[in-house]
Amino acid sequence: MNVLPKGVRHVPSCLDPAAQKALLEDIRAVVAEAPLFQPVMPRTGKPLSVRMTNCGSLGWVADRNGYRYQPTHPVTGKSWPAMPERLFSLWDEIAGHDAPPEACLVNFYDETAKMGMHQDKDEADFAAPVVSISLGDDCRFRVGETTRGGRTTSLRLASGDVVVLGGEGRLAYHGVDRIYPATSALLKNGGRLNLTLRRVTKA
DNA sequence: AAGTTTCT
DNA sequence: AATG
């Protein structure tokens, strides 16, 4: 039996199709104002396979200088677009944490994109959970423990699913093994959007 | 290694 | 190092 690590919660079909469409429209507006950019690995400059943008007061970026949160888009230099109201609402319903999210990282996966196993640890406070929302094509999501090399389990995530990494699961290693092309009609040109809500600073 | 490749 |  593949049981999820402690503190890792999968909420299948958390968003119904209407809610997914509404959220997608919000994200389209975000991307129109803050275009997807190509993150690269620190030091090596090797590009990640996902493209990304953010909304909220802070956004996560990756460039030759490292990983960090910053208030502006790395290409346009403008402030990130405001966090859509429905993301604050979703956080209130699901996170079990008083302070509101400060960052929403928007990752776009085309059919070839993957994400290696990693921890979300660039935040100053791990008390708040990480809330992850899937839109579009299915993916295989892998979750491990707080240390590399521990046991991992995988689950298939579909559009509208939400995953929460909180408590003991807050620093669980996780990644995306693969995208299952053409498994959702939500995104007309295919692919998968993942929205990650995080608190960055100490509340 | 938030990568890429490889194989018990 | 996992073994997706």
State the major sheet: 6 strands, antiparallel
Q: What is the C-alpha radius of gyration, as a whole number of Å?
A: 16 Å
CATH topology: Jelly Rolls
What percent of residues are in strands?
Answer: 25-35%
Based on the coordinates given, report the CATH architecture. Sandwich
Average per-residue pLDDT, rounded, comes to 96
Low-confidence stretches: none
Order of SSEs: EHEEEHEEEEEEEE
Class by SSE composition: alpha+beta
Q: Rough shape?
A: globular
- The number of helical runs is 2
- Give the domain tally: 1
Query: What's the CATH C level?
Result: Mainly Beta
Give the terminus-to-terminus CA distance.
Answer: 38 Å
| CATH H-level superfamily title | Alpha-ketoglutarate-dependent dioxygenase AlkB-like
Spatial strand sequence of the major β-sheet: 1-10-7-12-5-2
Q: Got a strand count?
A: 12
Give the % helix: 10-25%
Would you mind describing this structure in some detail?
The protein is of the alpha+beta class. It has one domain: Jelly Rolls, CATH 2.60.120. The chain has helices at residues 17-33, 85-94, and strands at residues 8-11, 51-56, 59-63, 66-70, 103-109, 115-118, 130-136, 138-143, 153-157, 162-165, 174-180, 192-198. It has a six-stranded antiparallel beta sheet with strand order 1-10-7-12-5-2, with helices on one face. β3 (59-63) and β4 (66-70) form a beta hairpin. The longest helix is centred in the N-terminal third of the chain and has 17 residues, at 17-33. The N and C termini lie far apart (38 Å). The mean pLDDT is 96. The structure holds two DNA strands.
